Each structure stands twice: as C-alpha cells, then as structure tokens.
Amino acid sequence: MFNFHYKVATKERTVREGYVRALNPAMAKKKILQEGETAISFTRVRSDIVSKYLRKNISFGFSKFDRIIFFRNVSTMMASGLSLIEALNTSSEVIKSDNVKKVILDMSSEVENGASLSTAMEKYPNFFPSYLMETVRLGEISGTLSDTLDQISVDLEKDYELSRKVMQALLYPVIILVVMFALLLVLVVFVLPKIADLYADLDVNLPILTRSLLALGSSIQNNPLIYGGSFALLIVLFAISYKIPKVKYVYHYILLKLPIIKHIIKEFNLVKFFRSLETLVTSGASWVMGVDVAKKTLTNEVYRKAADTIPPVLLHGRKLSEALEPYPDLFPIQSVKILDIGEKTGSLEETLQKVSQYHEKSLNHTVKMMTTMIEPVLMLLIGIVVGGIALSVFLPIYQLVNFL
C-alpha cells in the first residue's frame, strides 16, 4: 500500500484534497472519487513525508470554539445517517483554516484506510488533547460514537463558557492595574522631574515622599536599559521556571492560598473533573479509567497530584468518596458526602452530574462576587496612588506658602 496525495474537482466546482492509501492511482481514484467528481492529480508520496509535512506546516491547533463546532458537526451529521468519513469530509469544507482542513482530511483518509477516529486523532495531540481522544475511544468501543461526540461538544461548550466568564472577571482588574502602572510610570519619569526644576528654582525643601518619587524617576531615566532588561529577564525566568514541574507545583500551590482567586481555581477544577468523569463513566469507562482520563482535564498541578492517588485506591476496592476524603481542602466535604450517598444508592453517575452542577453554580456566584467586590477595591487603590502623587506635587507648594 502506498500513500497518494490527491486533488479532485467536485460537482460544486470546488477543489477537495487529502491523502489516501492504495496500491496504485487507479485504486486511489476508486476510493476517493464520488459521483460527479473529476480527478485533478494523484501523486504518490512517502508515508513519513505525509506525517512530517502535516506536522511541520501546522503550527496552530483548534481554538476552543472551533473544536466545539467540529465535534458538534460530526455528531450531527452521523446522527443524520452520514458515515464517519462523509461527516469528516463535509466538516472540513466549512473550516476556514487551511492547516486545520489538512488535518481533518488526513484523519478522514486514516479512517477510510481502516483506522478508528481515536487512532487518527492520536497523530495530532495539539488539536485533540488525550482526554478527548480517550473519550472518543470509549464511544467507539461501546458503539455510541455519535452520542459520545455530541456529549463532548456539550461539555466543551460548557467549559468554554466557564473559561470565558473567569477570564472576563480576571481581565478587568488586570487591565486597570496595567493602565495605572503605565500612568504612574509616565508621571514619575516625565512629569515630576519638570515640576522638580520649578522647586529647585524656588529653593524649596522637598518632603520625603516627593524626594523618593523624584529619585525613582531619575534612576529610571538614567538607566532605562537596566530597568527594561531586568523586567524582561524576570518575565523570561518566570516562563522558564514555570516549565519545571516542581516549581510549577509551587506556583499553583500559592495560587490556592490567595483570597477569592483560590475559590475560582478550586471550583473551576472541580467542575471540569466531575463533569469529565461523569461523561466518561456514562460512555462505558471503568471508574479507574475514568479518573485516570478525567484528571488530565485538571489545570492545577496540586489537583493533578491529588488525583494521581485516586486510581490505586479504587483498584483496592474502595469507593471514590473514600479516595477523596484525604483532601478536604481540594475536594469539599459536602461533595464527598454527596458522592458517598450516590455510591450507597447505586446512582453515582447522576450524583456526579449533580455535584458538577453544584460547583458550576458556586463558580458563577464566586465570579459575580469577585466582579462586584473588585471595583471598589480598585477605586480605593487608584485613589491611594493618585492621592500619593498629588501630595508629592502639592505638599512642597503648601510648605512654600506657609514659609512665606
């Protein structure tokens, strides 16, 4: 079997291209050409070239929104009676990115040559995270691939909405702080020194606040490369250190100690974990496999390390609630108790859904509370900064008037 890169003209007068495995061009044409289509080219290529070409020329994966649309379209078309290959080919036609289109077409070729969808997805980990691939594989094994793909799109959409709400809540204070810092820098470096010349002519004894700000502004003016380089170096060092597992764990541990932020991080991870676990178990995964895959959706390393200890406990015949009990700071007691009741009544799958919904509501409440609280805090902070600068400017004038 050889790999062929093909281009065909469809009856809608568009060009469709991709890769297919066949013994010769004639068999390749027989596999690919549909009614009303005309072959443009069938070029034999080496298999390693295909793989290297796709990996080299594709630098960006799906956006979260694109991934939702992809899974929803494929599941809808399969539910309507189309084959998986037809669904993949059709979904590729509505994708704008040429890079993404190449991936979908290559996956279609893989499936047409006998590979499963999950196996085809394995080639593109940047496009399809491992937990998605495992979920699809479970759907294939259980014979519910269409329903599984639909559930994946629903879960991804919920995650997308949660992420958007959290980012919006965090972005507002970040923008305010950045603007305030930039304004403070301009005032200290450019405005205050000009006022200082006026004070020097008047021979005014400047207060310590004004002298401190003037000294800082003068230092920045005289050593811009040192300050700029130091700031850039800090960013680079942080980025490098963040890739070190132990250091990254420390950063995530610190985040779980910050007021308000810790509640958002905890609820966000709990929602993703319990929702993914419920989807996986419903798709036919064992509890051990479900936890092992669901933990990959966790974004906090402290949670991931705790989740690593759950499968061994389950393998020893103990319950999920018992595996979570040693981590009351990560998995709230009330959630563990609810899971325990679900295990005793034999309705753990429904209980997982209720727990994930509970934490989703809690996350929404925390985000709203943060948005409400952050505005007065930021106003107070801005007032302190602006008031401090105003004092540094007008206090010498006040002293000069009293002296006169």
CATH C-level class of the largest domain is Mainly Alpha
Q: pLDDT average, as an integer? A: 82
The dominant shape is extended
Distance between the termini: 99 Å
Residue share in helix: over 70%
- How would you name the CATH homologous superfamily of the largest domain? Type II secretion system (T2SS), domain F
| Beta strand count | 3
> What amount of the residues lies in strands?
5-15%
Low-pLDDT ranges: 47-59
Q: What characteristics describe this protein?
A:
404 residues; Receptor-associated Protein; 3 strands; 6% strand; extended
Descriptive overview:
74% of the residues lie in helices and 6% in strands. The chain is mostly helical. It has three domains: 1-47; 58-128, Receptor-associated Protein (Up-down Bundle); 143-404, Receptor-associated Protein. The chain has a three-stranded antiparallel sheet. A hairpin with a 5-residue loop joins β1 (2-9) and β2. α17 (333-345) packs antiparallel against α18. The longest helix is centred in the middle third of the chain and has 58 residues, at 145-202. Residues 47-59 have low confidence and may be disordered.
